[in-house]
């Protein structure tokens, strides 16, 4: 119903505010993410990283429940930011390690000399070919 109200092009949707569903955000206090967020807030009550993580958790719960976030582009930015923090440049290091491994395997493979065989497809038609017109 909330999506329908947002889609109204004519009229004042503020009068239909009473029809919006009430959102309830249930928290599992035993979940590791909630425990880590609680510890982060206790250690640094004004931590901006913890606040951003809580906002991201709430908006992710909105999407999981079928609601649309107020600003999807802003949510995407938050997700990218958290991924950058979580990875901490690990992908770059993995690519460098893979490049080193592939270089050593190329050196090993080049001494043996491999030949690639290319097989051209040929057209085979029979009388019972169902695709022939």
Automatic annotation (TrEMBL):
Q: What superkingdom does the record give?
A: Eukaryota
Q: Which region ranges are annotated with the description Disordered?
A: 102-133
Q: Which residues form the signal peptide?
A: none
Biased segments, Basic and acidic residues type: 122-133
One family name in Pfam for this protein: HSP90
Biased composition annotated in UniProt, kind: Low complexity: 102-115
Q: Which GO terms describe its molecular function?
A: ATP binding; ATP hydrolysis activity; ATP-dependent protein folding chaperone; unfolded protein binding
What keywords would UniProt list here?
Answer: Chaperone
Gene3D superfamilies, sorted: Heat shock protein 90, C-terminal domain (1.20.120.790)
Q: Which family does it belong to?
A: Belongs to the heat shock protein 90 family.
What name does UniProt use for this protein?
Heat shock protein 90
Q: Which organism is it from?
A: Lolium multiflorum (Italian ryegrass)
């Amino acid at each position: 119903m909330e999506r329908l109200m947002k889609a109204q092009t004519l009229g004042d949707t503020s009068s239909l505010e009473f029809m919006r569903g009430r959102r309830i955000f249930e928290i599992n206090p035993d979940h590791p993410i909630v425990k880590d967020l609680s510890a982060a807030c206790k250690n640094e009550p004004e931590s901006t990283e913890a606040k951003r993580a809580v906002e991201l958790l709430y908006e992710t719960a909105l999407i999981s429940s079928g609601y649309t976030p107020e600003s999807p582009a802003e949510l995407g930015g938050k997700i990218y930011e958290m991924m950058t923090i979580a990875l901490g440049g690990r992908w770059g290091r993995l690519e460098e390690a893979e490049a080193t491994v592939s270089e050593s395997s190329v050196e090993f493979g080049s001494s043996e000399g491999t030949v690639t065989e290319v097989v051209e497809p040929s057209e085979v038609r029979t009388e019972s070919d169902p695709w022939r017109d």
